[in-house]
Amino acid sequence: MECRGVSHWFGSKRVLFDLNLKVLQGQFLSLVGPSGCGKSTLLRAIVGTHLPLRGEIVLFTGPDGGTAQVVRGPGRDRGIVYQHYSLFPFLNAQQNVAIGLMLDETTIPFRWLRFPTWRRMRREHLDLAAEFLRKVKLQDAMQLYPHEMSGGMRQRVAIAQALIMKPKIILLDEPFGALDEATREELQTMLLELYHENQQAKTRDESPPYTLLIVTHELNEAIYVGDRLVGFSQNWDWRSEGHTEFPGATVVYDKPSPVFHPNETKDVQQFADQRDEIRRIVFSPATVMNRTQHITYGTETSRPA
Ligand SMILES: Nc1ncnc2c1ncn2[C@@H]1O[C@H](COP(=O)(O)OP(=O)(O)OP(=O)(O)O)[C@@H](O)[C@H]1O
Ligand SMILES: [Mg+2]
Fold first, then answer.
1. What is the chain's pLDDT, residue by residue, as a tens digit (305 residues)?
2. Residue to probe by mutation, ligand 1, list 14, 17, 37, most atoms within 8 Å of CB
3. Nearest CA to ligand 1 atom 28
4. Which residue CA neighbors atom 7 of ligand 1 most closely?
5. Is residue 160 part of a domain?
6. What is each CA distance from 72 to 52, 116, 121, 172, 208, in whole angstroms?
7. Atom of ligand 1 nearest to the CA of 37
8. Cα of 37 from ligand 1 centre, angstroms
9. How far apart are alpha carbons 104 and 112 in whole angstroms?
10. d(Cα 78, Cα 162) in Å, to the nearest integer?
11. Total domain count for the chain?
12. d(CA 146, CA 113)
């Protein structure tokens, strides 16, 4: 997925400016930035519900990613999970996970006119839903309705809902923001397990199945879950680029972040340096720099692209 020169504004309020970002298949990219800098605005542009006013979002499809497709609206190749779970209250966990496929692959006349085929497909969708619920460790909760689940369980269902569609990229907008610390950590580990599946696929010479962009306010979470850390900020030196008025927030930080194994105990000290650096570069209004100064992801060779 690539954002090319994406800018967005609401009336006279400038939000995003000339955002360029290329996310490679299999990457887990954490996106951080001060409140109101436009992170959710960017996710809405990628999902296709609110297209950017300038620039474009491009998805690369086809077996070798050789076909470029500009995003013009929502599609099943992009999934999103919000902080406040969007489950259907009248469906159990398994049905909630299956519903996306059911709606996408069949129409109401199809369900009426080709009832036997529909029944078979429905079975397949439910079986697949069960498989994805196992992946998010909810194998014992398939029959529970949302009101019978904890917040953490609902977010797992929401993640399974996104995964089952096999999107090219999954967007998570502060997905664990409403959860307590322990539940949050469990879900972070679950995401690392998906990352680990990616790495195993690569060792088999297969393409990694999951690509993820996660927006989070919690810097430890950003560093822990992502293999790449991107920061947006309003505090960059736009005057030096000839603007007389603030044009919007843009990418000011893009670096690799350490990769952890899901079974590894988290050594919090390891996070400290990068966390301090992000606080200084992305979050501090006192730091005003050239926007390319801390964009080094592409040039650091420690991680294969
Ligand atoms: N529909 C809208 N109309 C007008 N202004 C909007 C609209 N949506 C967002 N904004 C403004 O755009 C800016 C960016 O909003 P956005 O929600 O993308 O920020 P964010 O980085 O996700 O913030 P947070 O970290 O608090 O979630 C904000 O100043 C917000 O007030
Ligand atoms: Mg937001």
1. 999 999 999 999 999 999 999 999 999 999 999 999 999 999 999 999 999 999 999 999 877 778 899 999 999 899 999 887 689 999 999 999 999 888 877 777 766 777 777 788 789 999 999 999 998 889 999 999 999 999 889 999 999 999 999 998 999 999 988 888 888 898 899 899 999 999 999 999 999 999 999 999 999 999 999 999 999 999 999 999 999 999 999 999 999 998 888 888 777 777 888 999 999 999 988 888 889 889 988 766 444 44
2. 37
3. 36
4. 10
5. no
6. 10, 35, 29, 20, 26
7. 21
8. 7
9. 16
10. 8
11. 1
12. 31
Q: Is residue 138 part of a domain?
A: no
- What strands, in cross-sheet order, belong to the sheet with 169-173? 78-81, 169-173, 212-215, 28-32, 228-233, 250-256, 294-295
Tokens of 225: 């879950």
Q: Is residue 155 part of a domain?
A: no
Whole-number Å distance, alpha carbon 40 to ligand 1 midpoint, is 7
pTM score: 0.90
Continuous H helices in the chain: 39-47, 93-105, 108-113, 115-135, 151-164, 181-203, 219-225, 272-278
Which residues is 213 bridged to in the sheet? 29, 171
Coil, helix or strand at residue 228: strand
Find the CATH number of the domain harbouring 261: 3.40.50
Structure tokens at 213: 């962009």
Ligand 1 atom, smallest distance to 11 CA: 4
Q: Which ligand is nearest to the CA of 217?
A: 1
- 38 within ligand 1 shell (Cβ under 6 A): yes
Domain coverage including residue 44: 1-74+212-305
- Is residue 107 helix, strand or coil? coil
